[in-house]
Every structure is written in structure tokens, then in C-alpha cells.
Amino acid sequence: MTQTPLAPKPPGLILAVDQPQRRVEQLRVFMDRLTVQAEIGLYARERGRRQPLILSVDAEIDPQRVSEPDQTVNYEHFAAKARALADAGHVDLVETFAERYADLLLDHPRVRRVTVRVEKPEALGADANVGVEVTLAKV
Hints:
Blueprint: E1 27-38, E2 51-61, H1 75-87, H2 94-106, E3 111-119, E4 131-137
């Protein structure tokens, strides 16, 4: 298989990497609407069964130019932590689940601040979408 060489940069095109006086102000990695099955809820009808939670994450990481995988957070990290938490056992409150999930994500050395949104679509049936959003940061 022949590899196609990269096209040269068009004349006059100035990339941010060519500008040493520019710096990365903010770098965010996100995951939107991952569904996990979790045992969650206060009511007797919610115990002993799993129900869907829809999770979204917005993580602020160290602001830097990223050219290597170890300079960022792999999206799979978000998904793996969500699945592990969902498999860890019953949680009464969505708020508790959201805070525990945010804590797990903050354990990553690159994550500085994280907002976690947890939706519980079966809470009110088709009448409304409900959930919790929490933001935690390292101090």
C-alpha cells in the first residue's frame, strides 16, 4: 500500500503552532450522552433493578498544545469510570451518583475541573427529562 504524502501547507497560511506568542488558554474534553444501566433510586420499585442514566461530561484539562495521547484525557477514560460506578452497586440519589462520578474523573492527573450531567429518563416517564448537573474542581 502506497502512502500518500501530506500536502504542503498553502502559501500564506499561518497555523497557530507557527505562532510562538500564542498560548492555549483553555482546553476542554467532553463526552455527550453516554447511557449506562445503574441501580439507582429511593423508591422500593427502583431497588434490585437497573435503569438507564444518561451521562455527559465537560472536563477542563491542563491548557497546552496537544500532540501526544499522554497530554490529554482519552474519552474512553470517561466511559470506563461511568461503567465502573454504575456496576458498583445501588445509589439512592442521582446527586450522589453525579458527585461520585465527578470525583472519579478528577482523580485523573490532567483533569482540573469537571462538570457532570446525569439524566434519569425514567424518573417521570415521557413527561419530562430530569437530572442533576454538578461541577467540581481541584483545589
